[in-house]
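Aim 2 progress update. The chain analyzed this quarter is reproduced below.
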Amino acid sequence: MKRICFFLPIALFFLISVTTVFSQDTTPPSGDNVSAKKHKFWYGPKVGMDLATPTLDQNDIKAQLKSNYQVGFFFQFGRKIYLQPEIYYSVVKENGIYSGSLIPEDVTVTFAKVPVLLGIKLIDIGIVSAHVMAGPMGTFLLSESNTNPLMIRPKKDYKLQLGGGVDVFGFITLDVRYAVDLDDNMNEELGQLTWKSGVNVTLGLKLR
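Predicted structure tokens:
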């Protein structure tokens, strides 16, 4: 029931947002305006990882990349305000105790991650543009190599993902995002977010 209370306003928010996205520049172009009409739909591949210990050190990044990575695809509808659904195949390699189990075990887990984000472009100077985004993300368990019955893992999970990023040369897109649980502690988590909280980093190509 608590999650339903969170999702109802989010669903309403996105319904209004979708209407806003598709109503942008609906005035029929004429004359010179035809050539000036800009593209409003992009898609492309994305790769990423979760940085549990955020760092810019190349060796640390490589070490964390061995424990988790994700590959996927995204769609983007709209320009200044846009809707961006994504889907990822995520692999996480856990090492050690999980969920209170006293028997350490190396476990490989795969998930499907499905964020649905609303983005707003804040700055656009041609070569580089900056944006912020937020929206719900569902994570669904696909498989795991765990053979320990004491390890209990949820089949699905829902979070609020939020962050920002930059687009370079119009076709390279880089995002850095946080994820917080959709529960009673959400406001507290949002108030405590820092770079040290761990972030999700994705890099993609925008095609059209």
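Residues 123 and 130 are 5 Å apart (CA to CA). Confidence is low (pLDDT under 50) at residues 1-6, 29-36. These observations will guide the mutagenesis experiments scheduled for the next reporting period.
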